[in-house]
Amino acid sequence: MVYLKVSDPAYECHLTCEPLCPTKLALVKLVADIYQFRMAKMYMVKGGEPSQKDQFMTARSNNVEQLHQHAHEVKQALDTLGIKTYRIKIEQTLYDRRFDAPAPPT
Asked: N or C: which end of the chain has fewer CB within 10 A?
């Protein structure tokens, strides 16, 4: 039996924005990097094409206040670039373990 010990809380933030053309995507990646967010690679279920519905980025931290501040600073930067933000969600992560998985389609 494996026992789960919950120690310091961890948080994950998801920021969802409108679909991005390659030029704007490059700018948003720069903004995301400043605040330690990573752009997610989204794929449709069929065909391996990037999502045409939205784009999102994620960040993790043990400091929820800092994560909240960074998320809203990213949103302000996106607003300045004329990019609409659809959602900011911060979740507490109790357990997160990765297993070997096949790579997404290219």
From this structure: N
9 phi, psi to nearest 5 deg: -70, 145
In terms of pTM, does the model score above 0.70?
yes
Q: Enter the tokens of residue 22.
A: 């390659």
98 falls within a domain: no
Cα 24 to Cα 1: distance, rounded to the nearest angstrom = 49
Task: Give percent of the chain with pLDDT exceeding 70.
Answer: 78
CA nearest 30: which of 104, 81, 82? 81
Residue 72's domain comprises: 10-93
Q: What is the pLDDT of residue 31?
A: 95
- Two structure tokens written together for 23: 């030029």
